[in-house]
């Protein structure tokens, strides 16, 4: 596109003007609403055929905006609050893949360790996964207070009866299980949770083993 055409569209963002000159559109929250609207119209009218979109805009764009080829460049984002990379929620990935037309193609660029999970996710019905490993404090505390978990080994035994335990071997990367054995992984989880409960004065740990509610 020429500068005159871009001027007629009222596009002011310099970086966007540069990419549009090569037929590539940008769509992100930092753009002015008028620039986003112009990019949207250009794509819908076939004036540009490549559109780069940030993940946070996947939910807000016009549902009519689809593509024959959708490329998802990575499945993680950096969470500044937690200061680490986290996986996109499955619902966000569904919103992204849903931009492909009925006969379209979706390409997902992903780490090798998570390749199996996303292949299953895209090709087969998605299995139900447990979120217990993300919210263990309350259930473990209740079991300790009820007297059903009296030692850390009891805690490991308790976890061995859960859906999470059954899914660990089927989808280890989802739960952060890399090369460790399952028993070691469960033991580390119990240790982390019980130390957190002790730090919050909910329980007392005796001889690094026994768990007593306070």
What does this structure look like?
It is a single chain. This protein is of the alpha/beta class and 214 residues long. The chain folds into two domains: 3-122, Rossmann fold; 132-213, Arc Repressor Mutant, subunit A. The chain has nine helices and eight strands. The chain has a two-stranded parallel ribbon. The protein has a two-stranded parallel sheet with strand order 3-6. The chain is elongated and about 75 Å long. The N and C termini lie far apart (71 Å). The model has no long low-confidence stretch (mean pLDDT 86).
- Give the distance, in angstroms, between the N- and C-terminal Cα atoms: 71 Å
Strand order of the largest sheet: 1-2
CATH class of the largest domain: Alpha Beta
Mean pLDDT: 86
Computed structural class: alpha/beta
Organism: Rhizopus delemar (strain RA 99-880 / ATCC MYA-4621 / FGSC 9543 / NRRL 43880) (Mucormycosis agent)
GO molecular function: ATP binding; helicase activity; hydrolase activity
InterPro entries: Hel308_SKI2-like, P-loop_NTPase, WH-like_DNA-bd_sf, WH_MER3
Protein name: MER3 helicase-like winged helix domain-containing protein
